[in-house]
Amino acid sequence: MSMEILLGDEAVGLGAVHAGLSGAYSYPGTPASEIMEYLIRIGRGASFKAAWSVNEKTAFEEALGCSYAGKRAFVSFKHVGLNVAADPFMSAALTGANGGFIVCSGDDPSMHSSQNEQDSRFYAQFALIPCFEPADHQEAYDMAREAFELSERVKLPVMIRLTTRLAHSRAGVETRPPRPENEIRTGARQCWTLLPGNARVQFKRVLDLQPELVRYASESPFTRLELQPDDRRLGIIASGLGYNYVRENLEGSGLRPSILKISVYPIPEDLVRRLVEHCDTILVAEEGYPLIERQIRGLFGIPGKILIGKMSGHLPLQGELTPETVRAALGLAPLARRTAGDLPLANRPPQLCVGCPHADTFKALKKALEGQPGATIFSDIGCYTLGYFPPHNAVDSCVCMGASVGMAHGASRAGVHPAVGVIGDSTFGHSGITALLSAATADANMVLVILDNCTVAMTGTQPSFSTGRRLLEIVRGVGVPAERLRVITPLPKFHEENVRVLREEIAHPGLSVVVAVRECLEEAKKKNKLGGAQ
Amino acid sequence: MSDTRKQDIILAGVGGQGILSIAFVIDSAALKEGFHVKQAEVHGMAQRGGAVTSHLRLSEARIWSDLIPRGGADLILSVEPLEALRYLDYLKPDGRIVTSSAPFINIPDYPDQADLLRRIKVLPGSVVVDSDALAKEAGSGRAQNTVMLGAAARYLLPREETLREFVRVLFERRGEKILEANLKAFELGRQASA
Questions:
Q1: Would an 8 Å CB–CB cutoff place A306 in contact with chain B?
Q2: Given CB atoms, is A110 within the 8 Å cutoff of chain B?
Q3: Would you call A112 and B106 a contact, using CB atoms and an 8 Å cutoff?
């Protein structure tokens, strides 16, 4: 055993490595990026493969292939990344896992760095696969190891669900000696070929496994039921970080509730039943959506019992849990504290770095669109989304990765003019390419501006798959004619020229692509620190 | 319970100011002295020039929550005056604020600076240090975070010597000159808060 200080993200990654990991794949996204950053860092010279993929679906499929080969495979991304990977994810439950297969999804309640709050536990439930939810760093490490064991035992992919707070906090973790990697051993072709006849057999297998999975969740050492024999007033069902906030507030409070800590799904029904039978009031404290609460409440509640939580309004439906919200739900008075009074606290939203190439592109684009009240700039997701804020006020949308291209296309068909899409180089590779193929085939009356800053900037400058010459070749390859593919350099000294190029392409009645190329300042700084480009 | 040594610290600043480096030093020092440590930090979008905080919890006993409860913090350590006030409701009534007086102005509606400092100085237990001037004096304008770490050192649970040891660990690999500037920055900050 040895002790290491790790981020929650890193604890999961190290647990996977010590479980005999052979292949790990990911696409960057907060709060999950640091898992792959860490695996790549510690994987240099190691026998396992850890690599960024062009998007989450691809990452998932690469990991699935690794599992098919009998090796232990790991895929990670943020919660909305699971949407991108949802197609193979849902079907992988039917193919099953051969080598252990972990899907680690980082949820972002409170939307610290995301466009929605979705709860990945619902996806695990949807696919009928087990899900582990660590409450602390030690569990993150231990669960990664255990999830591989379970995955190979029941031959199913297993999810580990993290939330931002755990993913991005540090604490000590006791590690154990690593296990060797699996030998190669390919899967059975009838399991891995989901033709209807095979898929039906496989789906029945997954359904038949459910009672065993519920039993596993009940018997897991991560799950804990503590009944207070002499106090029946309050029972608490808590999971993930919710459990920590409950324990934090109980210390010194005088309350002695019975507690069920749920750490593995499907929900351990017998333990829930024992707690509910024992207690008069049941509080459910879970991070994310009210999954446990809804499941045990049913449509009309539990006769004779009071069930409180998110659905009753005792905890907020929106945002992450906090020590204070849980404290209030426990009926405890708030701690005494200082107040800011009437102090003037101006907000400080994130913004483009001083000198960022995107700022120059937005300036030129806004100038080129002056006097055209119908102009709409469909933005994608990345640093450039910050162009929404003053002083730029330069973008009108941010929906999901790759959406800008399809939205500009659809809006142009609907009569919006000028319709401009704005997308980064990495996001273009992630899911802009197919939408551009569609727009090019239709010769849509739109301009796509690809902001090539040579990196995935917002999540910490991970490598981009579709930058530089390769990007230009891709754009040409999907059918954009050479004369409609323009390259500009977003620098103040080229402002007039860039405005002219953009105006020309906006005036062209068909598809144009303008690629604005200038390296991200953070990326350049990183290279300088490393003593030049690597 | 009351004899358990513990300390909850809110670290505050703006993305890029080196909050996480301060956290690294306090974490590592606390760990070396046998404390449990939990440190929640901000990554991703907010790091781009936005308000950044780190919740840093040290205790001889097990630490449950990754977040400090509002009203639970013993200390706010801030590299920027406006950010020092943003988290005031995390502070215990008898908690302390150690903050830089040097503003980081990247928003149009930054409050009146004189008014801001006046409001901080009247708060009981507040310590205000000009990290900008002291960092420059130490030989590196970028060492404001280390100045503030030094300014807080006398109020932190880990010993000053252990903190200094991890300032060394943090900056050693960046060359002798940067290391020396940061050790001096730590010392100037320490003296300024006396």
A1: no
A2: no
A3: no
Residue of A nearest to B174 (CA): A529
Q: What would the 3-class secondary structure string for A331-384 be?
A: CCCCCCCCCCCCCCCCCCCCCCCCCCHHHHHHHHHHHHCCCCCCCEEEECCCHH
**End-to-end CA gap in chain B:** 31
CB-defined contacts A:B, below 8 A:
160
Average pLDDT over chain A, rounded to whole?
96
The model's pLDDT over A451-475, given as tens digits with 9 standing for 90+, comes to 999 999 999 999 999 999 999 999 9
Three-state DSSP class for residue B34? coil
Residue A35 at interface with chain B, using a CB cutoff of 8 Å: no
Which tokens go with A260? 């069920």
Structure tokens at A352: 């483009």
CB contact under 8 A, A348 and B49: yes
Judge: B37–A5 Cβ closer than 8 Å, yes or no. yes
**CA distance linking residue A176 with residue A14, whole number of Å:** 10
Q: Can you give the pLDDT at residue A269?
A: 96
Q: Give the C-alpha distances (Å, rounded to integers) separating A329 from A234, A285, A305, A325.
A: 12, 9, 16, 6
Residue pair B64/B83 in contact (Cβ under 8 Å)? The answer is no
Show which of residues 103-162 on chain B sit within 8 Å of chain A, judged by CB atoms: 106-112, 115-116, 119, 123
Q: Give the pLDDT of residue A343.
A: 72
Chain B residues in contact with A348 by the CB 8 A cut-off are 14, 49-51, 82-83, 106-107
Asked whether A332 and A283 are in contact (CB, 8 A), the reply is: no
Instruction: Give contacts of A 487-506 with B, CB under 8 A.
Output: none
Distance separating alpha carbons of residues A207 and A246, to the nearest angstrom? 34
Closest CA to B31 of B165, B172, B180: B165
List Cβ neighbours of A65 (8 Å cut-off, separation of 6 or more). A73
Task: Inform me whether the C-beta atom of residue A480 falls under 8 Å from chain B C-beta atoms.
Answer: no
Is residue B45 a contact partner of residue B15, using CB atoms and an 8 Å limit?
A: no
Do residues A506 and A376 touch, judged by C-beta distance below 8 A? Answer: no
A228 at B interface, C-beta within 8 A: no
Structure pTM?
0.95
User: pLDDT tens-digit profile of A377-391?
Assistant: 999 999 999 999 989
The Cα–Cα gap between A290 and B133 comes to 51
What band does A527 get if pLDDT is binned at 50, 70 and 90? confident
User: What count of residues does chain A have?
Assistant: 534
The verdict on whether omega for the bond into residue A344 sits within 30 degrees of 0, i.e. cis, is no
Q: What is the dihedral of CA A259, A265, A270, A273, to 10 degrees?
A: 50
Predicted ipTM of the assembly: 0.93
Given CB atoms, is B6 within the 8 Å cutoff of chain A? no
Q: Does A5 touch chain B (CB under 8 A)?
A: yes
